[in-house]
Amino acid sequence: MIELAAARLTVLETLGEVLETPVDDLRANPVLASHAWDSLRSLEALTQLEVRLGVDFDLRTFNAARTVDDLVRLIVPGELAAHA
């Protein structure tokens, strides 16, 4: 199982690439809709994250994610609450 810090970094870096947005901008404003998040970029992010992390996402659950932490929570369930 991937640890929280590694999952968060991978999500941030992947989203940064897909959204063509600096990671620092994603950290400062983690709401995906604020960064040109659309259906195509969502699918690209899903595919990239599945490959990089070796996970399989449920498409409905993935599409329900609204923030960077929502995506991290899908990879490492329960860990964000324990480290908040």
UniProtKB/TrEMBL annotation:
<feature type="domain" description="Carrier">
    <location>
        <begin position="11"/>
        <end position="75"/>
    </location>
</feature>
<dbReference type="Pfam" id="PF00550">
    <property type="entry name" value="PP-binding"/>
</dbReference>
<dbReference type="InterPro" id="IPR009081">
    <property type="entry name" value="PP-bd_ACP"/>
</dbReference>
<protein>
    <submittedName>
        <fullName>Acyl carrier protein</fullName>
    </submittedName>
</protein>
<dbReference type="InterPro" id="IPR036736">
    <property type="entry name" value="ACP-like_sf"/>
</dbReference>
